[in-house]
Amino acid sequence: MDSLGALAGGIAHDINNLLMPVLGMTESVLDRLPPESPLRERLDLVMDASQRIKGLVERILTFSRKQGVQYEPLDIAEVVRDTIPLVRAMTPASMTLRAHLDPATGIVAADITQLHAVLMNLASNAAHALEGRPGHLDIALDRVVADADLLRAAPSLIDGRSYAHLRVADDGCGMDERTLERIFDPFFTTREVGEGTGLGMAIIHGIIAKHEGAIRVHSTPGQGTVFDIYLPINVPGRR
């Protein structure tokens, strides 16, 4: 772990050094563009994505320094809504993005960079599952209470507690039972060599666990995949 931390820290510093000119030059171009320029929207997405990368670099450096991740109260609907333009920018135009967000879902104690990483990773997987074909990506958010039915599917949740329920669904190629059994295993991937590390889903699983939540996945070959994520609503006076 010490060696991995040192390696991660070195890579993060290199990424940071490459990122600074991107941020600086983008800001410079934005300052020179007239307000009505159609390029402003695209450059704003570049700035937003660069800031997300900067946040991820900071998290890597935190890991390399063995410091704990800082959680803060976040409006989960606002976080998801602000991430959707980035999801749209990184997914192919042939994918139709549909969002159904309940603005009154509630407040969660979470790390915003990690939540962004979860949603972006799932969206990337959905785009890959479509294999270049037209399809749909549905992102939905609402509030649920852990009852007997939900606890059977996600026994780590607390009976009677309120949770933010984030659903990410696609109508791509889907997965068979053998793949589903290993989906959260580190370094397991169905992609070709060089197309993925196999760490994405393992990282997502770890993030959700650290947030005291749960993640479920349902998939059918040829019909698509659904991820259901549950994060505890931050209720005053209750952990």
The rounded Rg comes to: 19 Å
Strand content: 15-25%
N→C terminal distance: 30 Å
Order of helices and strands: HHEHEEHEHEHHEE
- Given as residue ranges, the uncertain stretches (5+ residues, pLDDT < 50) are 192-199
- CATH architecture classification name of the largest domain: 2-Layer Sandwich
Portion of residues in helices? 40-55%
For the sheet with most strands, the description reads:
5 strands, mixed
CATH domain class name of the largest domain: Alpha Beta
Total count of strands:
7
What's the CATH H-level homologous superfamily of the largest domain?
A: Histidine kinase-like ATPase, C-terminal domain
Task: Give keywords.
47% helix; Heat Shock Protein 90; alpha+beta; five-stranded mixed sheet; 2 domains
Description:
This protein is an alpha+beta fold. It has two domains: 2-64; 72-232, Histidine kinase-like ATPase, C-terminal domain (Heat Shock Protein 90), CATH 3.30.565. 47% of the residues lie in helices and 21% in strands. It has seven helices and seven strands; from the N terminus they run H-H-E-H-E-E-H-E-H-E-H-H-E-E. It has helices at residues 2-32, 39-64, 76-90, 112-129, 148-153, 177-182, 200-210; strands spanning 72-75, 95-101, 107-110, 135-145, 162-170, 214-220, 224-232. The protein has a five-stranded mixed β-sheet with strand order 2-4-5-7-6, covered by helices on one side. Strands 1-3 form a two-stranded antiparallel sheet. Strand 6 and strand 7 form a beta hairpin. Helix 1 packs antiparallel against helix 2 and helix 3 (76-90) packs across helix 4 (112-129). The radius of gyration is 19 Å and the shape is globular. Mean pLDDT is 82; it is low at 192-199.
